[in-house]
Amino acid sequence: MTKNPRARQARSRTPESPELVARLQRSRQRSLQRRAAATEREKTITRAVGKYLAAWNAITNAEQRRDSEVERLREQIDTVIARASTEIGGYENAQAAAAAAVRAHVQADEEVADLLEITLKRARQLLGGSRARTPAQSRGRASSNSADPTHLLTTIAPAHPRPGGGNPVATSNIRSTA
Q1: What SS3 state is found at 79?
Q2: Which one, out of 28, 76, 96, 149, has a CA that is 20 to 30 A from the CA of 119?
Q3: Burial letters for 161-171: b for 16+ Cβ neighbours within 10 Å, e otherwise?
Q4: Has this prediction a pTM greater than 0.85?
């Protein structure tokens, strides 16, 4: 159905009331304000999302730097622990050799413990390690000085001195075995 074009022209040519014009202008103004507010909201949201994503990226980078540094520090810690374990093992071997040398000149393990001011258990650990190795095992690890007993042990439990400390070899407690 086609409408009469004259009717359309007639409507557009009719004078509009001032109240109608004012209402149309207010409606257009509200519409423009709503669009401007929506545009401003969209800009605000876009800026906030951009800030959020920038912070997310910064967090990711900080976590990666942290993880890398922690890994590097853990490697350093492992190196320090390994170096200290090797050094401590050498000193423990020296302790075992000294305990074996003392034991060669006294009657019992108790005397070794008393002279070295360590527990009987620790004295037996030190002495037991040197007894546990066979001559074939000792030859495989022997140094150029085969009289040196430090090559007898590979590992010993850590030393636990008696409470109160003191000189590790109390010369006043040395007894003659002659």
Answers
A1: helix
A2: 149
A3: eeeeeeeeeee
A4: no
Distance of alpha carbon 31 from alpha carbon 44, whole angstroms: 20
Kindly state the DSSP code that residue 2 receives in the 8-state scheme. P
3-state secondary structure of 161: strand
Under DSSP, is residue 165 helix (H, G, I), strand (E, B) or coil?
coil
Tokens 């951009």 belong to 50
Q: What are 30-81's pLDDT values in tens digits?
A: 999 999 999 999 999 999 999 999 999 999 999 999 999 999 999 999 999 9
Q: What is the DSSP string of 88-148?
A: HHHHHHHHHHHHHHHHTTSS-HHHHHHHHTB-HHHHHHHHHHHHHS-HHHHHHH--S-TT-
